[in-house]
């Protein structure tokens, strides 16, 4: 646990069925209800409100991989090019989030990495040597999508074209 975090005591009234469900889930995860509720609230404030705004639909992995297999590479690239900048910039404006590299890292790339399983995200270096690393197990089509999707988001936020390297399961953006 991060010793620099500050905690406050808050009380909520919830139905007994919800309390029982939370207790069962906390037991299953080998944690306590307080920690579980904190995790649920953190996920909502960092991820779910963005996903709700862009009207995301959850897919299970076999369905996602099956769809990905059927879509042509060029179509994936077109989706990425069209969707990223529009959806994310509009959502950041609506939610009053800072639409710059640091805001994207904190409010989009990291939460999507933690909760959506689109990719595993990491930042390497700093300043002009900063690299954004997006690793995934979904192959070349998904990398092509991410290159244009993420590149478009960053271009929209910064006004400049990012340099992007793509390997089979890794998209690296230099910014």
Describe the protein's topology.
Blueprint: H1 16-28, H2 33-53, H3 61-70, H4 73-94, H5 101-115, E1 120-124, E2 131-135, H6 140-158, E3 163-167, E4 170-174
Antiparallel strand pairs: 1-2, 2-4, 3-4
Write structural notes for this entry.
The protein is built from 6 helices and 4 strands; from the N terminus they run αααααββαββ. With 175 residues, it is α+β, with helices and mostly antiparallel strands. A 4-stranded antiparallel beta sheet has the order 1-2-4-3. Helix 1 packs across helix 2 (33-53), helix 2 packs across helix 5 and helix 4 (73-94) runs parallel beside helix 6. It is globular and about 50 Å long. 18% of the residues are buried. The model has no long low-confidence stretch (mean pLDDT 91).
Please sum up the structure shown:
By secondary structure, the protein is α+β, with helices and mostly antiparallel strands.
């Amino acid at each position: 646990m991060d010793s620099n975090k500050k905690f406050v005591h808050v009380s909520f009234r919830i139905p007994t069925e919800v309390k029982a469900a939370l207790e069962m889930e906390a037991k299953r995860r080998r944690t306590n209800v307080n920690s579980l509720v904190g995790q649920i609230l953190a996920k909502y404030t960092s991820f779910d409100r963005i996903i709700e705004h862009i009207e995301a639909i959850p897919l299970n992995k076999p369905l996602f991989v099956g769809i990905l297999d059927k879509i042509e590479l060029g179509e994936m690239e077109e989706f990425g090019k069209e969707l990223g900048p529009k959806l994310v910039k509009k959502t950041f404006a609506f939610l009053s989030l800072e639409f710059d590299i640091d805001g994207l890292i904190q409010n989009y790339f990291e939460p999507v990495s933690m909760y959506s399983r689109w990719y595993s995200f990491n930042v390497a270096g700093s300043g002009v040597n900063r690299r954004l690393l997006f690793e995934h197990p979904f192959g070349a089509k998904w990398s092509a999508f991410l290159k244009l999707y993420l590149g478009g988001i960053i271009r929209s936020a910064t006004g400049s074209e990012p340099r992007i390297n793509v390997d089979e399961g890794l998209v690296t953006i230099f910014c």
